Protein: alpha-L-rhamnosidase
Amino acid sequence: MRCLYYCRNLFLFFLWTIVDARWPSPFDVRIDHHKVETSHDLVINTARPQFSWKISVLDNLLQRNVQQIAYQIQLQSIKITQQDEKFEWDSERIISSQSIHVPYTGQYDLLPSKYYSFRVRVWIKNLEEPSEWTDWIQFRTPIFNLHEYVTKNADLLWIGSTKINMNELRKEFLIPNASPIKSAIAYISGLGYYEFYLNGNKIDPSRKLDPGWTTYEKRTLIVSFDLSANITAGMNAVGVKLGNGWYSQEQQHGESKYGPPRLIFILTVTFENGGTMQVFSDQTWTGREGSIKHDSVYNGEICDSRNDRSNWSRVGFNDSLSAWIMPEPMPSPANISRNGLIVLQDMPPIRAGSDALHFEVITDSQQQGYLNSEDIGDMKGAKLTDGGTLKPIVMWDSDSGVKTFDLGQNMVGWCRIRFHGPSGFGVYMRHGEVLTQPVISTKQSARNIYTENLREATASDTYVLRGDPVYEIYEPTFTVHGFRYLSIFAPPNALTMDDVECPFVHSETTLKGHFSTSNPIVNQIQHNIQWGQLSNMMSLPTDCPQRNERRGWMGDAALSVDEALYNFDLIKFYHNFLDLIIDVQRDDGEVPDFVPGNSYPPDPNWGTALPTITWQVYRHYNDVHTLEVYYNHVVAYVEYFHSVYKSTGLANFPVKYGDWVPPPPQPMTNTHLITSFAFLHDIYLLINMSQVLGKQEDTNTYTILYQKLAEEFHQVFFSTSSNFYADGMQAAQVLALALPGVVPTNVRAAVINQLVNDINQKGIHVTTGIVSTAQIYPILSDNGHHDLALELISSTTYPSYGYMFTNSYENATTIWELWNAPLTGPGMNSRNHIMYGSVGAWFYSHLAGIDVSSNMITIRPRMASETKKHLMLKLDCQLSTLYGLIHVSYTRDERDTMANSVLLHVTIPPNARARVIFEPLFIGGQCKTLIEGRKIIWSSDVNKQNVEGFEIEKDSTTGLMTVHIGSGQYEFQALWQ
Ligand SMILES: *[C@@H]1O[C@H](CO)[C@@H](O)[C@H](O)[C@H]1NC(C)=O
Ligand SMILES: *[C@@H]1O[C@H](CO)[C@@H](O)[C@H](O)[C@H]1NC(C)=O
Ligand SMILES: *[C@@H]1O[C@H](CO)[C@@H](O)[C@H](O)[C@H]1NC(C)=O
Structure:
């Protein structure tokens, strides 16, 4: 293994000497947070974008301390018509180390509906020559004020039907060929969902369930496509399918009353001579009910393929079998009189299969040569790198005539199934997360799918065959299921496993975190979190993907956001969600429990999503702009609970859910303490935000308020007779400890003891619900009990994460909603909830010890003591940041036979700096020697500093050793005595 590591570097060195590559150079560029490399059509919805880039060096080992000292950006318009004026902007050489969120500083705003391109180059310290330019990167701007454009245009109609289930609409139009076509830009929205076809082909085929779900009357999303390569002179045809999605009553639980699906469409064709032509949705279109007879997010789809018309979106289509009628004008879904807006969808869409997930980490352990499969252990479930489409791993006959398939992984999507049978033959399919008990039955046929926990959601699809003589493939269009098992009732032919494949469906994103260790329990939890997190990204963060719920529950979103941002690139996704939250924020500042939704007021641990997500997006991306945009909304939210507080105090602070679902038979701890925690937590975040933004007055005001509340919290909830908070339960101690300044120094040790003793008394188990579980692991690690935190996370007995996949009922591949899932009823019992996935943040923040929240990266892997080191002998973690890849991996006591040492590999991306902190490996431990490469850089004997150019600090109280480093690859060894 070792050789692999060094040999790779040697090989790269060799390569470097022969190819004479120009380096460093900027790459993986972002504009307005859009990752250029993964966008086919960059639509930049701002007149003043910002840019980020990474700097590549051929190999980090060869180049340390790579620092940008200057950059240059050039931006120009792309002339498409004879009338277009050329616009050019050159930043010139700007002396700056800034390589992320670099603003466009041109004098003129970018104009709407134009094409531009830009390129970047950089200067690096100690190198005279600038880097090469990036290629010219093309983007376009949309109509900036879409809302005004759409509402002021009398010829443009929302169309649909109140008379028939009009879910297929089409229109043919003539493009004159007087002047060459230079661009063709479409805007489309179809509620609840649409699919868009042009001249017989689907536009952007992997895009699904578009547009994103919103509070439609407040915000309706519209999507733009560049069809310049597809529209040709002469006749063209567009076809649009419409689905109900979240616009339908079936999902709304009697909330807003929406009507039938509706479509808006704008196509603008621009010719070389400057002329334009437009096609709008209006009553010149025709529509009919297509092959989809019913579609519902919860209840699946009924499709009669005998009604498919293969050429319906082609020119010259003629359908003698069905009636195509004129659509009616429909009201706009956005309630204009209540400030409803039509806005551009400015986040990655939901996609199916391999297009849904991109990678910025290397997940193949062979390549990294550090942890191998023996270290990692056997993993249950599918791999994210397997291409985004799952195949069954086993199938069997369950009830008579029912074929059941197991994908081996709980996931979200649907199945693509190949059938062969007579026309008119109907097949029924159901989806489930688990099998009926007992799974261990020897009778195979008893293994039916279990659907009771889906509650009223039928999660079923019905397909009527058209009778294709060869075969036909069915996959649903406007529904999505959360499942691991598929049952097909009365299939027309003998199906094999090859006839079934199931795309994984979620909002498009990039995997940016990879975390594996020598502890197989932790690895499986990480697996389950990543699959669970992706499963719950369906244009907004959902609680679960399978039953009649799937909502933007704010508590779940707040608990998972830190973990989610470590694992996936989601800045646009969360900006969109923050917009959805403020859409429904009332004038008094309150927000609902779930969004879209109207469950006001929120439980404070649910409403916290607004401040928490704002803060976490800022932390993970160092993006101050996010704070600026949402700051006033956070203030208003905090002020809402401030005014509530004035009449309740903390002792009676309002509660709806408290520390939701602790493990039975454990009760919930004092619920007012739990909600008071959220209130203080949010004020604390607000203080931090105001500091970043330099709002000194707010900092002062909220600091005074926080100090007062911190005292009150202690007074109200601390029992001086027993020296613990509330009833002594874990949750109460953890939440008090998690709030800075609440627990006075003189009782801190007693409170920590209470927590630790209780965990031990419970046989090393938690008694915590969702709110305090998110805090307990970091609190233990930060307060001298990292060993115990590791023991807790390694547990496989009830209640524990490990129990979810080692019990005798189910090998869970995602995270459960309930600690006691197999032991309790179906009513509320999802096997794919993300709220308990919160622990995933601790994997990165403490186990790997990576903190990227300031421009100085901190690497401080928490170490198990010598006696518990078997719990985490090895760890390997990659985290992709806007600067590039951070890589941290360690092995305990590996090199030499000498014990009490740790070998730590660290890679810091170019233009970043880090401090690496080494912890003593036992209480009172003192560092003996620090080695980097093979050289001693610090030794207790001579106590010399700055050897070999390293700046090193020793903290004599804690024993912590801090080494400051620039970019590059390092191999440290710390020996302790
Ligand atoms: C539109 O043109 C692009 C570029 O040639 C092509 O990749 C895409 O498949 C076309 N789409 C349709 C619907 O024809
Ligand atoms: C659909 O169009 C294609 C290409 O124009 C043609 O070959 C085919 O026969 C048409 N199919 C039907 C059912 O009309
Ligand atoms: C869980 O997986 C193990 C193999 O890792 C297997 O032996 C066991 O039967 C599985 N349990 C269930 C309930 O599927």
About this structure: The two ends are 28 Å apart (CA to CA). Residues 856-976 form a domain with the Maltose phosphorylase, domain 3 fold (CATH 2.60.420.10). The chain has 19 helices and 53 strands. Confidence is low (pLDDT under 50) at residues 1-21.
